[in-house]
Amino acid sequence: DWHDVPIPLDEADGEEQASLADSFWLSTTKGKLDFQEMFSGSARSSSACADEGLKTGLPIDLRTGFDLNVQEGQKKAWKQLVEQEPTVVLLAPFCTPWCKWSNMVPEPKRSAKRKAALPMVEFCAKVALYQISKGRYFIIENPQGSQLWNLACILRLAQEAGVTWDLLNMCAFGLKDPASGLYYRKGMYLMHNFPEGAITPLFRKCPQNHERQTLEGTAKGGGSRASLSEVYPHRFDRLLARLLNKFLYGQSHTRVSSLLIDILYSASLSDCLLYTSDAADEGLGVDLGGRRIIKK
Questions:
Q1: For residues 32 and 89, is the Cβ–Cβ distance under 8 A?
Q2: Which residue in 11, 59, 82, 106 has the most C-beta neighbors within 10 A?
């Protein structure tokens, strides 16, 4: 029963621990992977999967040196995918050109932005089809009102056997505005090819028992509300990691070793990269002294 996986709903005390786990985690750079994140942003999902014990690849993202809107960047990404054979790939392509707010942009400019962003969406569809052809799995994420879901390459993918999708609301995972404290409802579709029930607990809907913050404007001290709503809540990432562990290995567990042990152990591994979200803009690792290092 996939529903026996613990669902982290009221783990306020775990937020600090999750934030710490985001700072240091081991990225497997050689050998087969359990999980690979693309268009990762803060790479929270990768952090959660690594913390759950899954073999997690270096995020494929502009911040880590992969420009997936050009052939060179896509070729580099294909090399990593082919060599490391991730069982699960999470793809979250940039949604700004496709979101409902983009409809407020004058037509010539809007069309130009969407045309420029189309290659990375088509690349996502190709990766998903590749995963299917290898008997592996994918998840594509984009907001509920995104026009990405109406693109020909995505509609073609939706017709593949075993591909399905469903809606979730991020407020059900605790996504809040940092200024008002109100919840962002943020509807999100996930398209995937997992067997029925495998990731069903992710599709939680708004409980309709709280006030909601609109995504307009900025939050004092936090920036654009639209941008803030794009960051996955820790509860979502932890549940995703637990479900994947349950699906792949028949178990779900919390961390069994301390973060410090993991960091020290990483120094003896030749096939791991110590990745830090704080250094994500540089796409590098750091040691405990704050110096940028890469171990390969």
A1: no
A2: 59
Other CB atoms within 10 A of residue 234 CB: 23
Question: Judging by beta carbons within 10 Å of its beta carbon (0-12, 13-18, 19+), is residue 170 exposed, middle or buried?
Answer: buried
Q: Is 240 left (phi over 0), alpha (psi -120 to 50) or beta?
A: alpha
Residue (of 18, 56, 33) closest to 275 by Cα position: 56
Cα 9 to Cα 3, 53, 82, 185, 198, distances in angstroms: 14, 21, 36, 15, 19
**Residue type at position 198:** A
Report the percentage of the chain scoring pLDDT > 70: 72
33 to 55, 107, 196: CA distances (angstroms): 5, 42, 23
Q: Per residue in 51-110, pLDDT tens? A: 999 999 999 988 888 998 889 999 999 999 999 999 999 998 877 766 766 666 777 887
Contact by Cβ (8 Å): 138, 127: yes
Q: How far apart are CA 96 and CA 107, in angstroms?
A: 15
Compute the half-sphere exposure of residue 47: CA atoms within 13 Å on the CB side of its CA.
25
- Give pLDDT tens digits for 147-186: 899 899 999 999 999 999 999 998 989 888 888 888 778 8
Tokens of 120: 């990375």
Q: Name the pTM for this structure.
A: 0.76
Residues forming a β-bridge with 191: 140, 165
